[in-house]
Amino acid sequence: MNPNLQFAETASIECSFQATGYLLRLVKSVHVAGIEVGPIMTLQHREALIERLEAERPSLLGFVKNCPAGMGDSWDSVSFGFQRGFDEMWDLAWAGNGLLDRPLLTLWRQSVELSLKSAIYYIEGTAEKKIGHNLSDLFDKVLKISTEAGLDQDNDLEKDVKAMIKHVQSFDLFATRFRYPADKKGNPYKGVDVNLEKLFQAHWIIVTWCEGTVVELGEKFGIGAP
User: Fold this and answer.
1) Least confident among 5-14, 97-106, 117-126
2) pTM
3) I need a surface site. Which of 32, 73, 130, 216 has the fewest CB within 10 A?
4) What fold does the segment set 69-221 form as a domain?
């Protein structure tokens, strides 16, 4: 537990995960840097859902289905949703014991990828071209099309963003490093040591750079998808 955390409510609920032997302390809300970020757990609600499942045995085949696309399905909205997901899970990981580090890294990577692809879509006005999942290639694409549109990207921020993305891409070549304990051949990956504070800052800088690029192009040159 990070010593800098001030818990709004100390303890009260503990649950034992018998399959793994982990003992997690669940808190209703926490304070990070003096800001309340809870509630972060809905244990009672989850337990009630399990009890209902055991008692009623309902059909669960309709838990996800198609529906008409809305505002929440745009590139910008989906990207923002993953940004918020990363922020929410970061709060939990910061208060935890390392168990959420890999899910958090997976969200980090997906959020960054969506931010880059969303920028490409809003600059070019299309998402039809296959551009893959390589973060460095996506960054180079955003840099290229924004520069060709007239934006001066030759600055320290651009170089910092490029270096951070290159580091993650070299660490996780195929977007599998954080999602699995071993590669496709069964060779175990090495462990992952995460500096959560720097991870959060890197995410914020990269996402802000992507959004700032789109906003600046729109304001200066009127470029961007409606």
Assistant:
1) 5-14
2) 0.79
3) 130
4) Four Helix Bundle (Hemerythrin (Met), subunit A) (1.20.120)
